[in-house]
Design goal:
This protein is of the alpha+beta class. It has 13 helices and 6 strands. Helix content is about 55%, strand content about 15%. A 6-stranded mixed beta sheet has the order 2-1-6-5-4-3, sandwiched between helices. β5 and β6 form a beta hairpin. It comes from Paraburkholderia saeva.
Length: about 325
């Protein structure tokens, strides 16, 4: 490998965490984000680096444009599905990678990530760049090929739509969550305990009267009784254990099967009265594959082997 090639690899590696985080926010899928960033790497590998004044900005621009193109295709595919579609959760690790660190630095709640699906690709790109990555309108304009004034209007329009279609709290204000994080964690723990104990009465008490359960396996269910009967009862009866986890920076619940695999991830949105206003339930095998590879029973078994042996173990 030549020095120029090594410099290219090092430059890309330094930006990869941010690029993955950006693409994930744009696409709502870790697998799609990794594909887009891989495409960006191929373009960077073939580019004449001597003509690129700011490699990090060049890579960000390419990633944004690739993500916009990919999102336009994915929107049609997702809308055609009979069952619902939910973003892929990002399960936080104990020892975060560069990608996890970048994701936390540009944190958006899972609920907001779901609302972003309602924006056009250009709106989503401009909103994510401005709100999550603190990009100025001039930089956004260059990345998405719009005028500065147009980008300013796009972000304003996106904020208005999200606020109007959101769940009652200031969607665009990252500094003011709907419920205090510690209170949210307490509600999540009560949900986890009730699911594990299969305590239907307690589960019903946790929901607001107009609670909504949104799953990638079925359509929306509204109302505390419906939420319990259509989702909580069947799921809790088949769950071997429920564990507290952190998804996209917020306390959530992982549902475990008898063999220790993660069978579902539950994101919780709380109302101001401390009850559950909305659940996002992800059970898609595709969405859970990366999570299980990192945190499921097989991953834990591999980790224990590595700890027990001095030599590396290939799992």
């Amino acid at each position: 490998m030549t020095k120029d090639e090594m410099d290219k690899v090092a430059t890309f590696a330094a930006s990869r965490g941010k690029l993955i985080s950006l693409a994930y926010r744009m696409l709502g899928s870790r697998a799609e984000a990794e594909d887009v960033v891989q495409d960006a790497w191929l373009r960077w590998h073939l580019a004449d680096a001597s003509t690129v004044r700011t490699p990090a900005a060049w890579l960000t621009t390419i990633t944004v444009r690739l993500a916009i193109d990919r999102l336009r295709h994915l929107r049609m595919e997702r809308q055609s599905r009979a069952a619902g579609w939910l973003p892929e959760p990002w399960l936080d690790g104990i020892a975060p990678s560069a990608e996890d660190e970048a994701l936390r630095a540009s944190a958006m709640s899972y609920g907001l990530l779901l609302l972003l699906e309602r924006l056009t690709p250009d709106e989503r790109a401009a909103f994510v760049l401005h709100e999550a990555f603190d990009c100025g309108y001039a930089d956004i304009a260059q990345m998405i090929g719009k005028s500065v004034a147009n980008c300013r209007q796009i972000v304003h329009r996106a904020k208005t739509r999200l606020r109007r279609e959101g769940d009652g709290h200031r969607t665009g204000d990252r500094s003011k969550p709907a419920v205090d994080p510690s209170a949210h964690a307490q509600v999540v723990e009560r949900l986890r305990a009730a699911i594990e104990a299969q305590d239907r009465a307690q589960l019903l008490r946790l929901f607001t009267e107009d609670a909504v359960v949104l799953s990638d396996a079925e359509e929306v269910g509204t109302g505390a009784a419906i939420a319990s009967a259509r989702w909580v009862d069947p799921v809790s009866s088949s769950v071997h254990a429920a564990e507290a986890v952190t998804i996209n920076g917020a306390a959530s619940v992982a549902l475990l099967s008898a063999d220790g695999a993660i069978a579902g991830l539950v994101d919780v949105v709380c109302a101001h009265d401390g009850r559950i206003a909305r659940l996002h339930v992800v059970t898609s095998v595709g969405h859970l594959r990366a999570v299980n590879d990192a945190w499921g029973a097989r991953a834990v078994a591999c980790l224990l082997k590595r700890i027990a042996r001095t030599e590396p173990v290939t799992c």
